[in-house]
User: What shape does this take?
Amino acid sequence: MASGETSENAPSMTSIQRHFLLRRLHSLTGIVPIGVFLIAHLTTNSSLAWGRFALRGKGDGLSVSEGGVKYFQHEVSWINEQVPHLLLIEIVLWVSIAFHSILGVIYATSGRGNVKQYAYQDNWRYSLQRLTGYVGILFIVYHVATLRWGWTFLVPEGTRWSHNFSASTLAAAMQGSTQGYTAMGVAVSVLYMLGVTALVYHFANGLWTAAITWGLTISTKAQRRWGVACAAIGAGLMLAAWSALIATMTLNYDKAHAVERQMYIEMHGETAYLEYMQKKGLQPSGDGG
Amino acid sequence: MIATQESTKASTVRIRVKRCDGPGKASYWQAFDVPREPGANIISCLQWIAAHPVTVEGLKTTPVVWDSGCLEEVCGACTMVINGKVRQSCSALIENIAPNAGDVVSLEPMSKFPVIRDLWVDRTRMFEALKRVKAWVPIDGTYNLGAGPKESPEQQATRYTLSTCMSCGCCLEACPQYLLEEDPKKWPTSFIGAAAMNQARLFNEHETGKQLKKDRLDVLMGPGGQSDCGNSQNCVKVCPKEIPLDESWAAIGRSVTIHAITSWLRR
Assistant: This one.
């Protein structure tokens, strides 16, 4: 009885192929380009913490935090002014993130977590993968809307991020003001800590499960071995993410601005600096700093 | 008086049963105190309740209905949710799951299949899934096909473990991606679950069973197939036969990847 009904309702070859393609593209986009971008992004960000030690003599007289600002600002200028096809890269990333997010939400809502009954570590991993996906989407939207699209109404005191004054404006956006922490700044900083941690977990775990989905690791032993590798990748990225966060959250706006100001004036001159500050609605600072 | 009550309590075990009078009816809980017997299991307790259908409140009720077969954990029929986790009731011994006086055992029907009555569920969808992936060796015909190709000892060793599946449904009950679906029309596109997927691997790796590999992989490529697995790996943890279902998912994943790419390039 039931068998006759079920074979009638079997999916067509077209819908089988479409299903497969969507599922595997969902898996692939999480690694390339999103995961690859995440690695590059967090590595650049972490230079705020270690940049002072990579300046090769150009950092004489600068503190660890000032050196980090100098190195980071150099990287950000390079990305914004030198990287070719930046718009194309952004579009590809946006399409991928939107695709991965929309399908991810559809897939995640097709399951019902049951960690209460079956409190296995792997089952927690499963539920966390879905939770971090949701947190990650919200964080990415906030992060990009405020710092890239300039939705300053979502930033405490309306700080506008500027790629020429990248570290100082970032610190002001996260701390809540150019004079240090405000209550809203604490909230934004906590959001960043949660969001970045969620995304690193999501990527590391996704890297691990992708190897099962595609059939690269088959035996339980191989899965465990790749699991150790993914945990190491995750730990490394988490270190990069947290060092960047701590460096930004402890950054002094004025000192960072002074380093960036000097770099800007070296490139464009004093007048251009004053004009730029006026255009961006930022408070210019004098010599010293 | 108090001493007598306590000794009664120590010599009985309380069994709470989630009951349901029929498909679509609301479920309710009833509790029974069952005398402890050496070597008692859930089935023997249910048999005692069937003979003495009186709840702890003294209410006379209908006997509890359940499904069972072999009583030695090889048929899978008596699978139910015991103290919140799915397992076979025949191998659930009272002395292990409720060793102390005052311990309570809760029994629920599996939640991923439609309830027929009380602890008895309709597992048709799981058996339909076996048909969906053609979990058999194609040897039917009008003449003798002769001896089949040889199987290597390594293949036999791998396949033997996979073949111990008794289609009990534990892997499906514990799976966060496998949900109750009562409409048979939706079964061909709903998640297939570990049991049938593992059988597809079992027959794909059989020298004669291989002939249907393409058909099986087409199904596992599509809606409800291999890629709908969410990798919680609960299936492998609850499998009473300790079948490496995590490895089967990955092996089928590899087969599907290769199948999809080669058939795309061949078209």
